[in-house]
């Protein structure tokens, strides 16, 4: 095929000056129009072929191939074929010297089109993998990003080789001397890649995990594990981008074990005024045993392996332990106890150590609060008082007018 008919057509209109140049321009425009038609035709064929070929394919593959733009980028190959075919036809005679630089431009463009197709293919794999169960445990975002980086670096090398008309291996042989520079330039990338591999291999963190790094202001769920950074959404809805290698070089707390176990620890202390502790008489002990344990004092002592004399602190501690064990929202199969801690200037703490069945923050706090509120309210039944700091030996109680004026004598 040639474009001599264009010259003949121009001569019919009496155009003889700059005939060859004008013919080349018109011919080039026709080739560009042909490139657009080839691209549109390729897109039409691909779009209709997708609907038929992928109609019965799994949803993840259909969405992956469509949303990644893989086929759209494949259609870019059609114009390149057209241009490459017409270069030796268009540029002849006085313009034959243009063929070599134009082939170079087409070669560079073809290199980057193929690179874009391969990166789209990497996106296809990533999107399809996100639909699998293992995507949460072993994210491959970092691996995909490394693959894209390698593809881009290879495209750069091939581009330079095409422009210089040298073999790519010739250029690669010179990169040995540039290793140190590359290590400095891509330091964070390389460290992030190594850290990402270690995180995935050891399953240290996964998308959706709740992690906490106090020094870096991180306390929330992992949204994305990338090549260079880890995206975390804190509970206050702020977003933190944490360098991936920080999770390897520094310790962090992963709350996922709590989520998998299905029990969230409650560790709260009731501050008891030591001045309110006392030894119970037989009548007082029998009354408390019948009221709160539905037993006689003797049966209660035997069941709890206790002997007289018994303090109201002991009875309240046993009551708290029993209350926790019978609470519907407390896990009995995990550690559960009520214990008296070392006395402090703020009184003696009665610590509740148990695991709540609710792991959702709001529900967990509601259960924990209701337990503490009930125990504080029932504490006076045992003759105990909660401790609170007083100012200059003044105990404050509200009178009818809302003033605080009661005096507490020194102990």
From TrEMBL:
Record field: transmembrane: 22-46, 70-92, 112-131, 143-163, 169-186
Gene Ontology MF annotations: mechanosensitive monoatomic ion channel activity
Short name of one Pfam family: MS_channel_2nd
Recorded GO CC terms: plasma membrane
Compartmental location: Membrane
Gene Ontology BP, a term: cellular response to osmotic stress
Assigned keywords, A-Z: Membrane, Transmembrane, Transmembrane helix
Keyword Amino-acid biosynthesis: no
Domain of life of the native organism: Bacteria
Residue ranges occupied by any Mechanosensitive ion channel MscS domain in the UniProt entry: 188-256
Record carries keyword Membrane: yes
Gene3D superfamilies hit by this protein: 2.30.30.60
The protein's name: Mechanosensitive ion channel family protein
Organism expressing this protein natively: Idiomarina abyssalis
């Amino acid at each position: 095929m040639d474009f001599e008919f264009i010259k003949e057509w121009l001569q019919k209109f009496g155009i003889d000056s700059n005939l060859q140049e004008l013919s080349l321009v018109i011919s080039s425009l026709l080739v560009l129009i042909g490139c657009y038609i080839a691209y549109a035709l390729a897109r039409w064929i691909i779009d209709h072929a997708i609907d038929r070929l992928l109609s019965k394919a799994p949803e993840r593959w259909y969405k992956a191939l469509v949303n990644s733009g893989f086929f759209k980028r494949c259609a870019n190959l059609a114009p390149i074929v057209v241009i490459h075919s017409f270069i030796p036809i268009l540029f002849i005679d006085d313009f034959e010297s243009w063929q070599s630089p134009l082939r170079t431009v087409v070669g560079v463009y073809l290199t980057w089109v193929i690179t874009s197709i391969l990166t789209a293919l990497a996106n296809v794999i990533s999107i399809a993998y996100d639909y699998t169960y293992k995507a949460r445990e072993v994210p491959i975002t970092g691996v995909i990003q490394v693959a894209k980086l390698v593809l881009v670096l290879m495209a750069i090398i091939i581009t330079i080789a095409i422009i210089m008309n040298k073999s790519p291996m010739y250029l690669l042989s010179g990169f040995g001397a540039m290793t140190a520079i590359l290590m400095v330039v891509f330091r964070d990338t390389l460290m992030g890649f190594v850290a990402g591999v270690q995180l995935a291999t050891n399953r240290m963190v996964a998308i959706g995990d709740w992690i906490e790094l106090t020094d870096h202001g991180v306390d929330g769920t992992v949204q994305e594990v990338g090549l260079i950074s880890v995206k975390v959404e804190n509970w206050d809805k702020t977003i933190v981008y944490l360098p991936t290698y920080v999770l390897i070089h520094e310790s962090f707390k992963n709350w996922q074990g709590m989520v998998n176990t299905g029990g969230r620890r409650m560790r709260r202390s009731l501050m008891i005024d030591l001045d309110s502790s006392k030894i119970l008489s037989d009548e007082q002990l029998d009354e408390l045993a019948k009221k709160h344990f539905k037993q006689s004092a003797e049966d209660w002592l035997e069941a709890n392996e206790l002997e007289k004399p018994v303090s109201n602190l002991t009875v309240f501690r046993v009551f708290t332990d029993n209350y926790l064990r019978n609470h519907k929202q407390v896990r009995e199969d995990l550690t559960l106890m009520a214990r008296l801690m070392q006395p402090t200037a703020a009184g003696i703490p009665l610590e509740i150590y148990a695991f709540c069945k609710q792991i959702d923050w709001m529900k967990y706090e509601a259960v924990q609060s209701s337990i503490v509120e009930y125990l504080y309210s029932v504490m006076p039944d045992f003759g105990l008082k909660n401790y609170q700091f007083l100012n200059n030996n003044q105990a404050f109680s509200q009178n009818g007018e809302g003033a605080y004026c009661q005096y507490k004598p020194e102990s």
